[in-house]
Design goal:
Strand order of the largest sheet: 2-5-4-3-6-7
Strand content: 15-25%
Helix content: 25-40%
């Protein structure tokens, strides 16, 4: 099956909205049970979806905000790490540097750079869908458009510019964050399945 090279806004709006089928857990401390569970689950995966969010800054010439959250997702669990509380502890840095666990995202270079402001690590095992998609004839670069082409799903972007540093992340923010990471993993597996047919 060949994929479309591009997609229109109208075509995206007609698609079924993507929803994350699993459990979303917020990790606010590296000494917490949630952190330990996240590490155990994520280290057992062959591939995890990867994304980050930063509080937007609408003032020109002001330095951009430090990255606020990191989202890592398997097939049925997504973990939202609140970086300004958790940072990038050694166990998390080890996961991000593990070549045997694929971290699937889009435009991962900028995300990695933001994470390295918290702790320097050697990134290994990262897969950038923006680099992978052209081999399948897909010219779109955004997660929203790639998801529409590859999975025929619509990813809502309504929370993208919300405050990711808020003391309480809303249900809508958590769902958005989880889907953004999870859907990257789903797209990767769909592309891999195409390749093997």
């Amino acid at each position: 099956m060949a994929f479309a090279s591009s997609v229109t806004v109208e075509e995206i709006e007609a698609l079924e909205i993507a929803s994350f089928p699993g459990v979303i857990t917020v990790v606010q401390s590296s000494g917490s049970q949630e952190f330990d569970q996240a590490m155990e689950y994520l280290n057992a995966q062959q591939a995890i979806g990867f994304d980050t969010e930063t509080k937007p800054c609408f003032v020109p010439k002001v330095p951009r905000n430090k990255m606020a959250i990191l989202q890592l997702s398997g097939p049925d669990r997504a973990y939202i790490f609140r970086l300004q509380q958790v940072g990038v502890p050694p166990k998390l840095a080890a996961l991000l540097g593990n070549p045997n666990i694929l971290k699937i995202g889009a435009a991962v270079h900028d995300d990695i750079r933001g994470l390295q402001e918290y702790r320097k690590f050697i990134p290994k095992g990262f897969v950038d869908l923006q680099r992978l998609a052209p081999a399948y004839g897909i010219e779109e670069k955004s997660v929203r458009k790639m998801a529409a082409i590859i999975l025929k799903k619509r990813v809502s972007k309504s929370q993208q510019l919300s405050n990711w540093e808020s003391s309480h992340l809303s249900e809508a923010q958590l769902r958005y964050a989880a889907i953004d990471a999870w859907i990257c993993r789903e797209m990767y597996y769909k592309l891999m399945a195409e390749r093997s047919e």
